[in-house]
Design brief:
With 589 residues, the chain is of the alpha/beta class. It is built from 16 helices and 29 strands. α3 crosses α4 and α12 packs across α13. The N and C termini lie far apart (71 Å). It comes from Azospirillum picis. Its cofactor is Mn(2+).
Amino acid sequence: MAGRDRADRDLASRDLASLNLTAGRERLKARIGQALGEARADLVIKDTRFLNVVTGEIAEGDIAVCGDVIVGTYDSYDGVEEIDGRGLTVVPGFIDTHVHCESTCVTPQEFDRCVLPRGTTTAICDPHEICNVLGERGLRYFLDSAEGTALDLFVQLSSCVPATELETSGARLEAPDLIRHMDHPRVLGLAEFMNFPGVFHKVDGVLDKLAAFEGRHIDGHAPLMTGKELNAYLSCGIRNCHETTSAAEAMEKLRKGMQVLIRDGSVSKDVHALAEVIGPETSPFLGFCTDDRNPLDIAEEGHMDHLIRSAIRLGAPVAHVYRAATWSAARGFRLYDRGLVAPGHRADLVLLDDLEECAVNRVIRNGRVVGEHSFGGRPAVAPVGLDSVKLDPVTVDDFAVPAGGSVQSVIGLEPGKILTEHRRIEVPAVGGRMVADPARDLLKVCVFARHGSNRNVGRGFVQGFGFADGALASSVGHDSHNICTVGSNDADMAVAVNRLIDLQGGFVAVRDGRILGELALPLAGLMSLEPYEAVEVKLRALRAAVRAMGCPLAEPFLQLAFLPLPVIPHLKITDRGMVDVDRFELIAA
């Protein structure tokens, strides 16, 4: 009986293989016939110009598409559907090489709607924000979501959950947990390997993850890494870095074979520092990424189109900027089917009114013009983590910092960067407790563990927020996403944190005990359940409220969200206390 069952399965398998071969053969016949002009192409962009990112030339002619594949260029074609390409320039679809969709404050489906019409046809995401809150449940949510997006969304498996042992996360993902998902069709490899101290100290659990993905793609995270440490890091098969912030740093990494992903997010804006690196020799080894970029910035400035436009305005050669954003990005991630306007490549195309301004006229994804219809019929993915803020209400006493030495370690913000300074500043004390001093732009900052495993509170001080009265609070706190709050007084900070508990996550601004603005992010405390247009409107109102408080920062909540990130130099704070990132250790209270 068992032998008959096995024979039946083998027969079914052969029948399926035969059907697949037949379907594949018919697809190829159609492509060949349309490429030869024996039949009309499914789609033709007529009389257009296109950028050849191999040669840098602007070519003229028709672009013919069969199904989802380009079949003709540098020639004339007739199409079943035709687009008048006169006055337009066609370029390959843009590739965001590293993005945390959660940081757009919307679901993957809304991220899709937000960025695809702006020319981003492929995105490579790391869901480590939601994984640090929900573990594999969050990872499965992203894998399920990625299978239904209109853009091509790939999911890198989060390598650092938690990012370090200097904080409390909501979950752990070890090598066996990741191996279970490594062959999923949406997975390319291992996401940014932030725990570089674990690499240098040869920690077994850290090396297990690298060993499990040896020979596959591994993303890097190497801020200010240089010399022998960079050599050691690269020797583990790590291929790229999106944390490069200077031209000199970029050149060392490029010389050592590391792909540099030029980032411009809502906080970290590195295009200005790295545009000079883009050239004919380097562009094949570059890429662009947004990392963390919210819908308000996307609405006001753009997505990948903004990065391309910015680099060109800064003097980078046009063809090499587009090469980095398309072909080079694809090659770096072994996506050999895209990134060129050329026969045999995926028909992911962006039609531009102006090449240098990267002014998007329309987008073609998989051979079809993108419109609102592109997002219909996608499978619904149920939200997860709607009860992820497991923190009891707080009181003003929870914020108290006992008086110690007058000179304390203070975090110094650098606007537009996630790097922070380690300052030594005199902090005043009143009634045996250290207090904020808004006159010197010295505010209190606290991090509350919110995952229910402990009641840790990290307390310290920060300079750079610039407001004299009130408090901000966020459940977005990279990477463990505990509740972070900064303020001039404990009472307002308590109101802000308690409001976040009620909302089950989000952003809140408070002054004089009154809530000035808020945005609810109930999905894992990271994402809204509303359309991206609604989130944009609420972020705009929240930004105005914070500016009215006197805060000069362009993105105060994202600057706040990076204060607990103990893998970025130099001084940070987690629920366990102040962290000297250079020493990779907690500072004794």
